[in-house]
Structures are given as structure tokens and as C-alpha cells.
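Shift notes (night). Ran ABC transporter permease while the centrifuge was going.
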Amino acid sequence: MNEIALLIAATLSAGTVLAIAGLGLLVNERAGIVNLGAEGLMLVAAIAGFATAVHTGSDVLGVLAGMAAGAVLSLLFGLLVIWLNTNQYATGLALSLFGAGFSAFVGTSYTQQRLSERSTWAIPGLADLPVIGKALFAHHPLVYCAIVLAVALHVFLYRSRAGLVLRAVGESPESAHALGYPVRRIRLAAVCAGGALCGLAGAYLSVIYTPLWVEGMVAGKGWIALALTTFATWRPARVLLGAYLFGGVTMLQFHLQSEGIDIPTHWLSMLPYLATIAVLVLMSRNPAWIRANMPASLGKPFKPGH
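Came back to this:
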């Protein structure tokens, strides 16, 4: 039972990175913008957060620095694709490549750095419960923040006027513009908010989850988060559940290794990516269902007056 509790706890911690990044990308795509640069955003945020935490000794400042880095890069991305109408896919890929190279260059001097001793977190009383205490109630606050964020985003999108406007911009920017809504500014705000969440995911990875800096440490999680939004049909609660599913698959490889199961480590390392491919292949068998759920203007540029 103790091993099951540890596996559940590891799943929640690993899934938090994907959940926060996936929710950020969902905000982007609900506004009609596809950002393929999540991997680069998370890498830059990871090194920004880690470097800040090293120099200040504050995890909070490290996380805020990661969010700021993600928001700034997303602002530049938004200006290019929203105002200058550059291709969203090409610009996103360029951002991803830039983030990988820039973080590797800046992070060279931080590869040997270590953060101070990490604090242990637990909810008093609940963390002492047998089995479920270690599994559910002994996590860093950001793990619970991801759950709260998913609930808050659901309420925002489906229970608020601002969320309705955001979804309207993603469905038909021309109609929203005709009603007097500033489509470009709304899209830019969504892109920056989504970038800040991707930055939060990157900073969580390097400051809280690991905590250290290694070149390329995001290791494809940005791409998995991108696929996760499609897997979840652009619903916050499904993003959260999908993130924990992929997080569980990731942790399963370590669990199988600890059990001494004779499977090549390369196959175990491939599990999260094989699961992603399998899910996308299964979903692609019903394109009509995907089209019925995805924002109608996703990836399409908007030019006022055209």
C-alpha cells in the first residue's frame, strides 16, 4: 500500500507540470492562437526561475521570475502573430528553437549549482492519514494550485462574461469585432496569460520539482502539454485529468524499474511519448468530433476590416 501511495504522490507531482502548461496553452487556443513555442517558453522560464532562486534564495521570487520570462516571450510572440500577422506555426517553432538555444547558453554556469535544502510540505492532520495522507496531502502548494487553477479557469470560461467574450473571439473574431470588442488586445492578453502559466510550469520544474538546472530538462513536456489540449478537447477539467494520466505513465517507468521488471530502460523512457502518439492516433480517427469541439478560428489570423 505504501508503494501505491508513493506512486500516486509522484503522479500528482509529475502531472502538475503538464497541467499548468496545458491550461496555459488552453487559454491561448480558446482565443484562437496556436503557440508551438511552449517547450522554449518552459526552458527559458526554468533557467530564469532557477537562476533567480540561486541568487536570492527565494523560491517565490524564482517562480515569479519564471512567470515573467514566459509572459515577456509570449508578448513578443503575440505581437508578431497578432499585429504583424506572421504564421503562428512557424513563429511558435522559432520560439521553441530560440528558447532551447538561449536557455542552454545562459544556463551553462548554473549546471553545477544547487538550491538550498527544500522545505517539506504537508497539510496538518490530513498528511498523517494512512495511505492517502502521503498520496494526497503532502505536496507543495503549487500542486494544489494546479487543481484550483483548473476549477477557476472552468468557471471563468463558462460562468463569466469575460470568459464568454474570450471564447467568442476564438470562435468568430469577425463577429466579436463587429460587436465592438478589441479582438487583438483580447488575444494578446490571452497569449501573455498563457505564456505566464507555461513559465510557471517551467519554474516549478527547475525550482520545486527537481530542483536543479540541466540543459533541455523540460524534455518534451511542452509538446506533450500541447497535445494534451487536443486530447482534452479544450476543457480545463479534462486537461487536469489528462495531465495526471501522462504523469502516471511517466512515473510508471520508475516504478517498474524499482520492482526489478526486466524491460530495457529506453523502452520505459519512451512510454510518455508513445502514450501521446497513441492518444492522438485514436483521436484522429474521428476528425468531425475534434472539429466540433475545437475553437473555429484556431490558428487563423485576424485582420480588422477584412
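The domain at 2-114+136-293 is CATH 1.10.3470 (ABC transporter involved in vitamin B12 uptake, BtuC). Residues 120 and 302 are 48 Å apart (CA to CA).
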